[in-house]
Amino acid sequence: MSPLRLPTSPVDVVVVGARVAGAATALLLARRGLDVLLVDRGRYGSDTLSTLALMRAGVLQLHRWGLLESIVAADTPPVRTTTFHYGEAAVEVAIRAAGGIDALFAPRRTVLDARLVDAARAAGVRVVHEVRALDLLRGESGRVNGVLLEDPLLGPRPVRASLVIGADGANSHVARWVDAPIERSARNASGVIYGLWSGLDLQGYHWHFRPGVSAGVIPTNDGLCCVFVATTAGRFERELRGNLEGGYHRLLAETDPGLAARIATARRVGGLRGFAGRPGFLRRGWGPGWALVGDAGYFKDPITAHGITDALRDAELLARAVATGGDQELAGYQESRDDLSRDLFELTDAVAGYDWDLVEVQRLHLALNEAQRREVRHVGALDSAWALPRSA
Ligand SMILES: Cc1cc2nc3c(=O)[nH]c(=O)nc-3n(C[C@H](O)[C@H](O)[C@H](O)COP(=O)(O)OP(=O)(O)OC[C@H]3O[C@@H](n4cnc5c(N)ncnc54)[C@H](O)[C@@H]3O)c2cc1C
Prior knowledge:
By secondary structure, this protein is of the alpha/beta class. It has helices at residues 20-31, 56-64, 68-73, 109-122, 173-177, 233-240, 244-255, 257-264, 307-324, 327-352, 358-381, 384-387, and strands at residues 11-16, 36-40, 81-86, 89-94, 126-129, 132-138, 144-151, 155-166, 182-185, 190-198, 205-210, 213-219, 224-232, 267-275, 281-283, 286-287, 290-292, 298-299.
């Protein structure tokens, strides 16, 4: 990493965190002509914890921003059906064609996050990986006006900015430095174990439910399927944490013996990854000179596979607010984010509690479907031209 890549003069916006939320926000701001610095302590193109599934609003955003083609070109398979398995019963739902998309996708994060970063760079964002944000800078009034970055060669370097955006994930440092209050908390959390499998001849998303457990199959790049199992965080802690391998196969067999039998004939690529769970939250999303986007401001249990989709949604809501105004627009950003998130948040929390039977979980899924439709309508009604490169 060259130290010369950190700017010495002030920029309009510094975004801390260069994954789905941060790279998308930086991209959209740069397309509106803002001077943006995007930093991440991690490496370009690296992987992260995720079972990869995008929902309709997320796919729609990538399409509207002109990025879906390059993701499809990376050999990301189309998902044309979603099948819900409730015990022995299966309900298959076809993905309908609307808004220019006729399939869902679940790109590896090495593909999705990298494509967003590439697009941000192409839009003029200065992107610097392997640089950590150490602290925020403030003016006399206390307003945030920059960030202290750790240049690996030169040490701590201040970069001044009109706005600092924390897109640095659920453990956000930016949120901690501004003391962003948590305004809504979830009660439940689920533990998840997942792995990637080759030779699993399954099409579409499959979500499996039995009281106390769930599993999913998500087709991704290179002919692989991500297969996860999930249960309460309490059970994960008691039974699974110390033996991911044994726990994974036990939960698969418990959730769906047919799926477990298929896995027995497939080949795993790489190790298993575990997530012990953490209850969701909605944090205050903005303040003087700062804003939060993605998991930094709004985290929910992964059981409804909606974090990436919401991060892309909120990237555009925030970018629109920043590009058009000041604090009032930032307040509007939070209002829209919270309004669109409330039902998804509560319903996700209910599913993550595993305090349901198969009738109740179907009711929760129907309500989730309604909340997602509302989100799709909101995203679909945004003016696409706004988010495209200016010359497009
Ligand atoms: C087990 C699991 C499965 C999931 N499955 C799905 C799924 O199937 N579908 C879905 O939609 N969502 C899923 N999610 C949620 C999804 O992964 C997140 O919502 C999404 O990654 C949030 O993106 P983000 O950009 O906000 O934050 P992150 O992806 O967390 O990225 C934050 C970035 O900030 C950087 N950073 C942090 N601190 C600093 C610092 N001080 N300085 C510089 N950089 C910093 C990090 O290096 C990181 O790259 C899952 C989550 C988990 C845990």
